[in-house]
Protein: Oligosaccharide repeat unit polymerase
Organism: Paludisphaera borealis
Amino acid sequence: MDDRQYVHATAALIAAYFLASVVSRRFDPFAPVWLFLVGYIQVYVLQAYSYREWAISVRGVDLVTTANQRALWALAWFLAVYHLGGGRLVARRLPTPPRKWSNLAVGLLSPVLIVWGLYCTGILGGGSASGELGSPEDALLRSFPYVLMVGAVMLIVTGRRISAPQPIYLAAGLFFAFSYMAIWMFNGKRSPALIGVLATVCAYYSTHMKRPSWGVLTATAFVGALVVAVAIGWRIDVTHDRSFIGFIEFMGDFDVSKILDSLDITDTAEQTSYEIISYETKEYGGYLLMLDTVPMKSDYDGGANYLRMFSTFIPRILWPTKPLYGRKQWVDAWIAGSELERDEDFTSPAIGILGATQLNGGAPATVLVLAVLALLLRSSYEYFRLHADSPWVQFFWSITFFNAWFMIVGDDPMTWFYFNWSFASLPAIVILWFVNKGPDVAWSPSAATTAAAG
C-alpha cells in the first residue's frame, strides 16, 4: 500500500464503524468515541490528504507512508480496546453518584462562576483575552474563563430536571451559554466556542435522558463548524474594526465557504493572508516531525509529561522549582527536527496524539497510551449511561465528554486536564458531589432510575 491508501483505509474504517453503529441502533452522539473520531479525521485524514505534497517534499515518502500506516493501526487498536477492554466492568465498580440535586447549592455557586468567567473573558474589565498585563496573582485569577460555561451548564441541568423543572434557571443557563460562545468567537478562539456548542446540546438533552434527532445533530455539526470558522476568520481579519460593530459587520460579510478552511480541506484563508512557509505547525506536520526526529535526533520523554496530572496541583509557592515535565524533550525535538530555526522559548504548535505518543516512546508507547485512553473513555461513558438519571452525572458529562476531541488535537492526550479541566471544572464537580451526597439542602429527587440507559 502507498501512503494515500493508508489514509483511505483510515477513512473507510471510520465510515464503516459509523455505519455499523447506525444500523445496529447503537449510535449515541454523546459517546466520546465520536469526538475522538472527529479529531482523528481532521488530523490523520483531512490534514494527511491536504498536506501530502508538502509532507513528502519535506519528510520523504517513506516516512509519510509509515506515519499514515501507524495512524491506521493505532485507530484499529483504540477501537478494539474501547469495545473489548472492560469499560462496563470498571464503570460498575465506581462509586454510586448522588441522586439528589441541591438548587440552593447551584443558586450560590453558579453566580460566582459566571461572574468569574465573565471577568476572565474581559467583559467585566480586562480579562485574559484583552492582552492587558497585571500582577502574577491577577493573571492567575484571569486564567479560568471556562468557569462561565461550567456555571451555565449547572443552570441548564437544574432547569431541565424532569422531577422539578426550573424555567428561570434554564433560561439563564442558555443565555450565559450562548454568551460564552459569542464572546469567544469575538475573542478569536475556536476551541472555547466549539466547547460551548457541545456542552449546551449535551446538557439540554441528557437531562431528559434523550438524544438529539438527526436534524438537530446536522444543525449542531453545522453550527459547530460555523463558530470555529468565524472565530478563526475574525482572528486573522484585517479589513474590519476590532470592535463589536466591526464584528457584526464581519459576520454580515462572512463567506460560509470559509468553513472548509477551518476543517483543513482548503487553505485559501491562510494563503490570502500570508505566504505559506511550512505546515509543520499543523497537528499532522508536528506528528511527522516527531516521527522523523525522535529518537534519532532527540530523546524520548518516557511519558514524563503525564506527571503533570499530579504536579499541576502543587502550587509553585510550595515548589518554586517545579519543572514542566516533558517540556525539555518537546522543545529539543522541535529544535532538532524543525524546518525553521527554533529556540528554547519556542511554545506554540500542537503535535497531536500520535506525535505525543511517538515522543513518549514510539510505537510501544502508542499501543500503551491508546489502550489507557480507550479504557478511560469507555469506562467514563458507561458510567454516564449507567447513572443517566443522576443530575450530577448529567452535569459532569456535559462539561467533560468533549475532551475526547482535545485528546487528538492537543500537545499530548492529557493537556485538557493540565491546562483547563482540572481547575475550571473539577472543583465544581467535587463540590456538588459532596453537597448532594451530604445532608439534604433544598433538593428534590432525580428522575426514576428505571429510565436510565441500559
Notes: Confidence is low (pLDDT under 50) at residues 268-274, 441-454.
